[in-house]
Fold this sequence. Notes:
Shape: globular
Order of helices and strands: HEEEEEHEEHEHEHEHEEEHEEEEEE
Strand order of the largest sheet: 4-3-6-1-2-5
Helix content: 10-25%
Number of strands: 19
Structural class: alpha/beta
Amino acid sequence: MSAEAGVFGTLATRLFLDRQLDFWLREVDPVLSLREVRARITDIVEETPDAKTFVLWPSRRWPSFAAGQYVTIDVEIDGVRRRRCYSISSAPSGGRSFTITVKRVSHGCVSNWLHDRARIGDAVVIAPAAGAFVLPDPIPRKLLFVGAGSGITPIFSLLLELANRRRLDDVALLHYAPTRADVIFHDRLVALAEEHRGFRLAIRFTRGFYRPGRFSEGALRSLVPDFADRETFLCGPPPLMTDVERLWAQHRLLGRLRRETFVPPTPLPSVAGAEVNVKLLRSGRSFVSGGRGTLLEQAERAGARPAYGCRRGICHSCKCRKFSGAVQNVLTGEVSSAPEQDIQLCISVARSDVELSI
């Protein structure tokens, strides 16, 4: 036997033994693993008819988080591992547990699995927390939060962190929801406002008997006349994001606006995929890239299963190596044409024949 074959055999044996040990560790405790970081679901709380909070207890290998960040969750659904990103809705408290609050989404694969099939005691695979929707250092004296729907989840994490640091002395929250029953964390938000007199809470409803409330400069000024002097955090659906961004741009305040979004950003209108060949080296698949969708979507249609998370260019879970060819970023328009470059599949389209590592 050659030395090379001996090394290969040793590695194969080690890999087999590691997998066997990993299997038996999970039989003892679903959170234990040598190969990945896991977290146990220790409680499930119904927040609204379509939103639930999942309390997670991660293994000691998980390196904690900062308020406002998100975590990538992997679950196995019908034999296929699915990955999604969810904002953390709690604040660091010195313990290991944290929460995610998940809203049911029409045709949402992972969100609906969590709502319908996840049980206390189940384990999920988690990645290190990530994201830049966090409090700056030092924390500004005056803060404003604007949100709607499930956009309250990272905002609530930040508010809890401010409360823990006793910094809710000059903070305002303007939050929109269809009805009272749709307001995630309603009672806890009211309790924060009652406990901290410097926290101004305004919840506006967009449906119902009373006149619908929509975001406007007038509504904002009635709550926060000095909004232009505040560092602002924004999270919500596209219409709200667009309205706030437009107003902040008019007042030349975009440099003081921090944003988190749950939907894919709008691609540049001039960016469209070309009719070129894409070769996936690891899976051995190939396909013709046309004008529909990003490289991630096209690879999935071709039968490949590349890793992904947010599908919006933030979490970098879909990053892969481009060995040759040119691709274009659909958000910035930037073209990557040099060989041996890392790209994000979810925000890239092919501009020439391309070879990818997946």
